[in-house]
């Protein structure tokens, strides 16, 4: 889970997604590595799956209680998105994926401007200019 391609970011300045914005150089190293089957779950996906108060109440009220249901029940601050859970569900069950696109993805490491940590995307191979060797499978929607 990380990055954003077409969606607005959720980092300090709104340019990038928080995970990539905190360390875009590391994200870039992974994106540029010759990994044959990169699967990305950006904010473009995770922002589409909302957790409502009713969902929190339903999970938190489940009996018998478990550590997870207790966590949901006792949360003081309820986040409206299930960022990492969406990515994990997609990895655990690839059949949930609905809109997957082969894209060349990089991240801006231009610390001096507002694009720092922002996802960069190409539909065609930009290599060798960017250092990207392979396209990534970018998941944009999942079956809910």
TrEMBL record:
Start and end residues of each Inosine/uridine-preferring nucleoside hydrolase domain: 1-143
Domain of life: Eukaryota
InterPro entries: Inosine/uridine_hydrolase_dom, Ribo_hydro-like
Gene3D superfamilies referenced in this protein's UniProt entry, alphabetically: Ribonucleoside hydrolase-like (3.90.245.10)
Family from the record: Belongs to the IUNH family.
Protein name: Inosine/uridine-preferring nucleoside hydrolase domain-containing protein
């Amino acid at each position: 889970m990380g990055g954003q391609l077409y969606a607005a970011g959720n980092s300090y300045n709104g340019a990038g997604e928080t995970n990539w914005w905190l360390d875009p150089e590391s994200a870039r190293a992974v994106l540029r590595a010759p990994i044959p089957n990169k699967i990305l779950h950006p904010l473009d996906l995770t922002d589409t799956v909302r957790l409502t108060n009713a969902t929190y109440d339903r999970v938190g009220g489940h009996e018998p209680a478990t550590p997870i249901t207790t966590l949901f029940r006792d949360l003081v601050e309820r986040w409206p998105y299930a960022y990492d859970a969406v990515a994990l569900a997609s990895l655990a069950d690839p059949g949930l994926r609905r809109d997957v696109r082969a894209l060349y993805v990089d991240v801006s490491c231009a610390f001096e401007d507002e694009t720092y940590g922002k996802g960069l995307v190409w539909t065609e191979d930009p290599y060798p200019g960017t250092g990207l060797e392979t396209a990534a499978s970018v998941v944009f929607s999942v079956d809910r």
